[in-house]
Amino acid sequence: MERILITGAAGQIGAELTKFLIDIHGQNNVLATDIIEPNRYPLEDARYRKLDVLDSNALGNIVQKERPTQIFHLAALLSAKSEKQPLTAWRLNMDGLLAILEVARELKVPKVYWPSSIAVFGPDTPSQNTPQNTVMNPITAYGISKLAGERWCEYYYRKYQLDIRSLRYPGLIGYKSMPGGGTTDYAVEIFRKAIESEPYECFLKADTYLPMMYMGDAINATLQLMQAPSTRIKVRSSYNLRGISCSPKDLFEGIKKFYPAFQISYKPDYRQEIADHWPDSIDDREARKDWGWQPQFDLELMIKEILINLPKYLL
Ligand code: AKB
Fold it and tell me: Which family does it belong to (predicted)?
């Protein structure tokens, strides 16, 4: 029987992943935590505790009491917010991860998951089909913290044999939860505007290609990675993961087929520079080879799936 602890459970990935983990392991075996107050936590059927991951006493007490067999450490500041508050981002993203790695080592937690991001890459990285191992040199606070995090994950694996697993998520597009403070957030906002029959003002240029992924695929990848036998996990920093490569214009044109009156305008802001230094597309051969990763959603299927489900979800 597995016992699961999730940090950052109220975030874009956390809110969706928690539901899947409850379905798989049962409500009593999953504890969702986040820094927000219990009355603001969105998942009524989850066991929830308020937790600041930087409070190592509180974290240690929860891990002592719950004795999780798996920790999903999702609490982090995303790229756009991190550029506004680089030192806060470093503290949360780095000290938070180190607190989790330490508690997992000390209390012998069998498995830990931590998300990295395409933000580990920078302007010197080959932008088409970016390889697993290549020049990184991120220039954003978020990217720097993610790259340093990857090195620490591999360090804990090599030095202490901590079974840590990680994915470099592309921008995630879902309809059940909202992102906050990311550069790829436009790709979630745009669907909501279309459904509300409002025009969308996009903060990236029309032709900004970025690696993206449907949330359903990202959840499957995460669960598949965590369920794979340890011997199949050859990359202990973080795996490249490929979904869909698209631009705001691609998404707009796809949505317009269903909502012909939908309108968009482009007003790039500081997030454009972040996006300009990220890859266009990702090579994920290692993930496919090592643990059988295979995405299910292409651009067309994802747009259809979201436009069918989002209106029911917003009711
Ligand atoms: C962000 O935009 O910051 C995230 C990411 C790509 O890691 N969605």
Answer: Belongs to the NAD(P)-dependent epimerase/dehydratase family.
